[in-house]
């Protein structure tokens, strides 16, 4: 059974993991955050022309976050972050550029190379970063890779 959070995003999609050996069931307070995150992702979807968004990572339990090498303070832990692709729109850089120049509220937007990370943590700093090839992140969207 699918638990719809919004018209285009389901709880299962935002909690899916390839690490099936780990329990990635979110507690009730995280489910509430995921509902808000899904509503914000609907805004992103509309901004990208209603194109399909493929979520690769949403909520991560602490155990899952450790296994995938996530930051200790990751917004994924609270259900405030989504890693995704929108293949019909263009490259992750094009997606980031569209979001960064829009009025969509976000905390962090990161062009990760082959996917986009967006978080909607309560701060809403509108911080835009680009992952560097050698490691680390640069502030803003880098033009050359």
Outline of this structure?
With 145 residues, the chain is of the alpha+beta class. It has a single domain (11-139), classed as Muramoyl-pentapeptide Carboxypeptidase, domain 2. Helices cover 28% and strands 17% of the residues.
Question: Explain this structure to me?
Answer:
The protein has four helices and six strands. It has 145 residues and is α+β, with helices and mostly antiparallel strands. A six-stranded mixed sheet has the order 1-2-4-3-5-6. It comes from Phenylobacterium kunshanense. This is Peptidase M15. Residues 8-119 form the Peptidase M15A C-terminal domain. InterPro entries: Peptidase_M15A_C, Zn_M74/Hedgehog-like.
Keywords:
alpha+beta; six-stranded mixed sheet; Peptidase_M15A_C; Zn_M74/Hedgehog-like; Peptidase M15; 145 residues; 6 strands; single chain; Muramoyl-pentapeptide Carboxypeptidase, domain 2; 28% helix; globular
Total beta-strand segments: 6
Gyration radius (Cα, Å) is: 14 Å
- How do the strands line up in the largest sheet? 1-2-4-3-5-6
CATH fold annotation = Muramoyl-pentapeptide Carboxypeptidase, domain 2
- The number of helices is 4
Q: How much helix is in the residues?
A: 25-40%
**Assigned CATH class:** Alpha Beta
The N- and C-terminal alpha carbons lie at a distance of 42 Å
Structural class: alpha+beta
Number of individual domains: 1
What average pLDDT do the residues reach?
A: 94
The unreliable regions are none
- What's the architecture, going by CATH? 2-Layer Sandwich
Q: What is the approximate shape?
A: globular
Strand content: 15-25%
